[in-house]
Specification:
168 residues; alpha+beta; SH3 type barrels; 7-stranded mixed β-sheet; two-stranded antiparallel ribbon; 3 helices; PRC_barrel-like_sf
């Protein structure tokens, strides 16, 4: 009886234990395919754009948010925090914008967010008189800071006037 139990234990340890020791959360390592011979070309490969900075990592077991696209829309709620300015979106609207050359640029029309609703930019109405001849430009939140109740930008008035019209 003992030799049969010993043989069964030996058989179990050689076949079942390696399978039990595997971590189910990690897929088995795949062997890389054989490397193909490199072709030489006279032209250098075009440089790829760097990947966008990742947002805060997701908690374990939680799927990360989808990457934001380049499309932004006005944030309707006045209660969305604009973390970089330490204000709520409603407090940012109608703030005066001052250029790097200390000239008054215009007034914030709206806070713009990405597809996840995170504030990314502000739209600013510049130029014109009583809305006639004015145009709307977009300033990224990375280009502005709060300074004594106004938004100060790193751009000059001339640089901002040369920005394309947002029209939205």
């Amino acid at each position: 009886m003992k030799p049969v139990l010993l043989a069964a234990a030996l058989l179990f340890s050689t076949t079942a234990l390696p399978a039990l020791a595997q971590d189910a959360s990690k897929p088995p390592a795949a062997t890389p395919p054989a490397a193909a011979p490199a072709e030489t070309s006279p032209e250098p490969a075009p440089a790829e754009a760097p990947a966008p900075a990742a947002e805060a990592p997701a908690a374990p077991g939680e799927a990360p948010p989808p990457p934001a696209s380049g499309v932004m829309a006005a944030i309707d709620s006045d209660e969305v925090p604009v973390i970089s300015l330490n204000l709520m979106s409603g407090q940012v609207k109608e703030l005066q914008v001052i250029g790097a050359d200390d000239e008054e640029i215009g007034e914030v029309n709206a806070v713009l967010g990405d597809q996840n609703g995170q504030p990314q930019a502000v739209s600013v109405e510049i130029g014109g008189f009583l809305g006639i001849g004015a145009k709307t430009v977009i300033l990224m939140l990375t280009d502005v800071r709060l300074d004594l109740g106004k938004l100060r930008t790193v751009l000059t008035k001339n640089e901002i006037e040369n920005l394309p019209d947002f029209g939205g």
